[in-house]
Design brief:
two-stranded antiparallel ribbon; alpha+beta; 4-stranded mixed β-sheet; 2 helices
Length: 108
């Protein structure tokens, strides 16, 4: 897996490369083990990721996925924390409120 970056030019012509935040979108029908595997793979390569979920069942699957991913990464000495926040997304003509879980490596 490679880390994609965004290159931004500044006023003094220096460039800054920032990693693109990887977002995993979880639904009520998502398999928590599959999402956990994807999240673990991301966290092995990056320091942050985002999980988005809309609806109580989707948030439940997302939280279970984080717990499972922690167990996958435990033997590698990687732990993580998540910070929840509300988000609003547009689905067709409708605006929906969901949860965004910012997942970060825990500092030792």
């Amino acid at each position: 897996m490679t880390i994609d970056t965004i290159t931004t030019a500044t006023a003094d012509t220096t460039t800054i490369e920032k990693p693109i935040l990887l977002t995993l979108k979880v639904s009520a029908k998502s398999n928590p083990n599959a999402v956990a595997g994807a999240l673990a793979a991301v966290m092995r390569e990056r320091d942050t990721a985002e999980i988005q979920a809309v609806g109580a069942a989707a948030v439940n699957q997302a939280v279970k996925s984080i717990a499972i991913a922690r167990s996958y990464l435990k033997d590698e000495g990687i732990d993580m924390v998540c910070v929840p926040a509300f988000m609003t997304i547009q689905i067709g003509e409708e605006r929906r409120t969901g949860i965004s879980l910012a997942v970060e490596r825990r500092k030792a």
